[in-house]
Amino acid sequence: MRTKMAPATTHQTPAAVSEEVEALRRQLVALQRVSSLGVLAGGICHELNNALTPILNYAKLGLRNPDPAFRQRAFEKILEAGQRASAISGGVLGVARPRADRREPTDLIRLTKEVTLLVGKDLSRHRVHLDFQAVGRPHARVNPAQIQQVLLNLMINARQAMPEGGTLRVRVGEDASGRIAELSVADTGVGIAPADLRRIFEPFFTTKTGPDASGQGGTGLGLSVCRDIVESHHGRLRAESRLGQGTSFTLRLPVCPAPASAKQGVA
């Protein structure tokens, strides 16, 4: 006589479910970060090559020319190019291998400039002009790599919204109260329909119909991840758009005092 086996069931406590959801969220953030860097990989390598070329050339010239003044100028050019290469590689490593969720007072202008350095070649290759402006020196207590990831995603989205080229406007400053830092990324692209604009932060919702000219399509996860990151920093991410005129995303974060080292550097 065979006995019937009861179906196997698993019961997870709310704490276990919450822990599993958080683990999946971290994996999603990591995948989105890697995807953004993949879009820029070719351009970043090109920029690194551009920085290394003068290092090699000026080193050769310095070896051949015994004039001390010439060698001094060669060393200065080598140092300048080396610092640029270091900034590029540092930016990539900062986004690709973020430290644990440690938040610290961060210069938002410097952080944003590091991202524009990473996307520069990709923008020029797609005939997109970068218009960057900053006012003041706002700081916020953030995880730098996570906020860079948000900006990276917004800038890539903006470039993809301008298939025929255009202007990417990036602004950094504070609101009128001086208590909120604002970072905006605006394009002159195709724009988003009002019905779609209400849903753009929903997971898996995308306005992209397929891969663009660079082979990149939309998963519908990028903006959802961006919003989650910003809100975890007690900030807000809002979007405005008009069809045929472009789209603007504004990231708002509570400001914090600049660290003493930054104040001394300004002085």
From TrEMBL:
It catalyses: ATP + protein L-histidine = ADP + protein N-phospho-L-histidine. InterPro entries: HATPase_C_sf, HATPase_dom, His_kinase_dom, HisK_dim/P_dom, HisK_dim/P_sf, Sig_transdc_His_kin-like_C. One of its GO terms (molecular function) is phosphorelay sensor kinase activity. It comes from Singulisphaera acidiphila (strain ATCC BAA-1392 / DSM 18658 / VKM B-2454 / MOB10). It comes from the Bacteria. The keyword ATP-binding applies. Its EC number is 2.7.13.3. Keywords: ATP-binding, Kinase, Nucleotide-binding, Phosphoprotein, Transferase, Two-component regulatory system. Pfam families: HATPase_c, HisKA. This is histidine kinase. Residues 43-257 form the Histidine kinase domain. Gene3D superfamilies: 1.10.287.130, Histidine kinase-like ATPase, C-terminal domain.
